[in-house]
């Protein structure tokens, strides 16, 4: 079995449970901004529509087609107008409220702390994320993840976004390690798996939904639960 010295983790959807934390935040905002008074949609439909819109806007952001500011502004405008509100009815400040509240949520995927405690004595652990620097720092502090990791590289601070291999090389240079000594773990096949492969790094595709979509070439490893990392490392 190949010997690794450093493990690279994505943060959102891999360690920090974005869906659970976002859902909890959106339910709070539904009440806080009295969205029920419009009488056009339920809290559940608000969450489902936001999730649909947000995934597509993040895809555009990852491909460099929209900016951070556009992403933050457009996701609530597109969500709420898609649910029947006029644009002038979109509550002022709802985007800022989401950005302030969501990162303070603390849900992580099952076995996160157990696996990090298992890995930390054996490997250098690092985060590589397309998320925004300030937001990711708040998430890691709130969820008590900071102490497990050395470098935390965001696309905002290095100037590149996954899957651009230059983002991976930036982290490798900071740690002074060769690609073949590293293993990348992430949930996004294009950003995490293909990006790492193009940088010469082995990959673990984290697939908790057990999606059966055929992906070529296959990742080095595929898991549906973080606890499975103990069988690899």
CATH hierarchy class name of the largest domain? Alpha Beta
How many distinct folded domains?
2
Shape, per Cα inertia axes: elongated
CATH topology of the largest domain: Rossmann fold
The share of residues in helices is 40-55%
Compute the number of helices: 10
Structural class assignment: alpha/beta
CATH structural architecture of the largest domain = 3-Layer(aba) Sandwich
Structure description:
With 233 residues, the chain is an alpha/beta fold. It folds into two domains: 6-17 and 108-232, HAD superfamily/HAD-like (Rossmann fold, 3-Layer(aba) Sandwich); 18-104, Putative phosphatase, domain 2 (DNA polymerase, domain 1), CATH 1.10.150.240. Helix content is 45%, strand content 11%. It contains ten helices and six strands; from the N terminus they run βαααααβαβααβαββα. The chain has helices at 18-32, 43-62, 68-82, 94-101, 112-119, 133-142, 155-158, 165-175, 189-198, 229-232, and strands spanning 6-9, 124-129, 152-154, 182-186, 202-206, 221-223. Strands 3-2-1-4-5-6 form a six-stranded parallel sheet. Strand 4 (182-186), helix 9 (189-198) and strand 5 form a beta-alpha-beta unit. Helix 1 (18-32) crosses helix 2, helix 2 (43-62) packs antiparallel against helix 3 (68-82) and helix 3 (68-82) packs across helix 4 (94-101). The longest helix is centred in the first third of the chain and has 20 residues, at 43-62. The radius of gyration is 18 Å and the shape is elongated. The mean pLDDT is 94.
